[in-house]
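To illustrate this point, what follows is a protein record of this kind.

___
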Amino acid sequence: MLKNVAVMLLDGVHPFELGVLCEVFGLDRTDEGLPGYDFAVVSAEGPRLRTHAGFDVVATEGLDRLDEADLVAVPAADASTVREFPREVLGALNRAVGRGATVMSVCSGVFVLGAAGLLDGRRCAAHWRHTELLAARHPKARVEQDVLYVDDDRVVTSAGTSAGIDACLHLVRKEQGVAVANGIARRMVVPPHREGGQAQYVDRPLPRATSDSVAGVLAWMERHLDREVTVDDLAARALMSPRTFARRFQQETGTTPYRWLLGQRILLARELLEGTALTVDAVADRAGFGNAATLRHHFGRWVGTTPHAYRRAFRSDGA
């Protein structure tokens, strides 16, 4: 279970990447029915550290705090791509993985994991500016060029800046379910899913419309995912011509009505697979795919696995 989280800071830590970890895991949302975390910020290089933005932060916990964490996270810091790291830091990260904890990097924090030898033989992600350098420095790592994040055997790595949010929400979703991840995302006012190069690791976004006419149609579509609809049907509901509706929908959501509807159906199928004991045929029917073969086809393209395999990996114990 994901209950105890420690963020390990190096001098020159980047405030945004640190802030992402604090926002997801350090904010108490128990009054909203969401789980709380035993959260700590740990200094690897003295209690007072200079941030990338020029102000100081003070961390009162030492490296021994990492030995009890379920998740050890390493945000980006200045010179992470070129500097040497304290042996105590590398040892603590290896101990964490050795006892079954998860370690996670945000942006250039991946170089700390590489220095600890944790990328050897594993897939990993990095900011696009650093992928070639990371691959050259750690030739045993399998660096993915076009992903937001990768989760490979308890080592989670993310690309630049906001991709850390995606990685954090993925980890919450994996360990605590879709409802918890969606609740945190809603509180943060960020999408719980963003499209990326590796569908099995990066969930798809569901853009929202801002105009009343299109937003009303989106709300209706969400309530009637099991219905077969055409652009003509949706345009009539929005009191527009099909051509105008299709153009307005694209402008408002960044995608087509078909792909938006397909994305909603995939998300519903995932929730049903995780949270119910419905058969795959029943899931396909309720999510609007009609039959299991159609569900398997689209599920494989979007999620990168089969509904059965997804259920085995993500179904909650209470379902």
Q: What stands out?
A: The first helix runs from residue 15 to 25. The first strand starts at residue 4 and ends at 9.
